[in-house]
Amino acid sequence: MDGEYNVTYIILSGHVEVQKYRYLYFLIMFTVYILIICCNFTIVCLIWIHRNLHEPMYIFIAALLINSVLFSTNIYPKLLIDFLSEKQIISYSACLFQFFLFYSLGGSEFLLLSAMAYDRYVSICKPLQYPTIMRKTTVGIFLGLAWLVPACQIAVPAILSADMKLCSLFLNGIVCNNSIYNLYCVSSTTRSIFGVVALTNIALFPLLFILFTYTRILIISYRSCKTVRKKAAQTCLPHLLVLFSFSCLCAYDVIIVRLGSEFKKTARLIMTLQVILYHPLFNPIIYGLKMKEISKHLKRLFSQTKVM
DSSP state, 7? Predict the structure, then answer.
């Protein structure tokens, strides 16, 4: 406790030999963060500039990439500061805010992937109705809900946690995730219920909806002509790869929290880095390579750069 300002600080005890390797950690994570920003915003700018990419599918991709940058920005700046600091600490209020953004933006990713799955379903299974269904207003509503619903759902357990008594100030991790629940003296039934409701609404239901939607697309495509099957494969495969990647990382996060005490510190750090490190880079790489129109514009951009 800071007596003058009465601020509670949490000690992030998940770092491994940070005093010895601080500059190496900083260099690696800083490089990754710059790559995340550059790779994601390159594709976002291409979608913004080129009118043939002003379609719902590409707008959702741009939103997903912006969400990845926001997710990384919630984590990387604080992480970089910790690497160069003598003590790896964070105020309890800032920790709760990081917790809120961590899961709110994670939930937004699932809802954006759900919107993309619905877009692909309408495009492939109901092509004649596509312009009527996927209007600009519909896309705007989907985008608004994708960010607003998780924020409202996660805000409740975050607010309920604000006044809870802490029995420990040592957080077994390097970011504020569900591990903060281990700091409290007693568990809150109300907070746990809201947590389960939030998990169901922003992760489980969207995941089931996505799987159901792509199953329907697969069945209808299999019964259709070769052109429809090719279109389905080209546009749906990148989304499924991103979904698989993100679902694995969510599973990692749960495993880290639930079995944290049974993991060695180094193993826990490596698993945490899996959650925050490669997925924000994975998205632009997948969409840049697998989406035909985006790949075409990227090749033109790089060819122009070489000429210059």
Answer: B
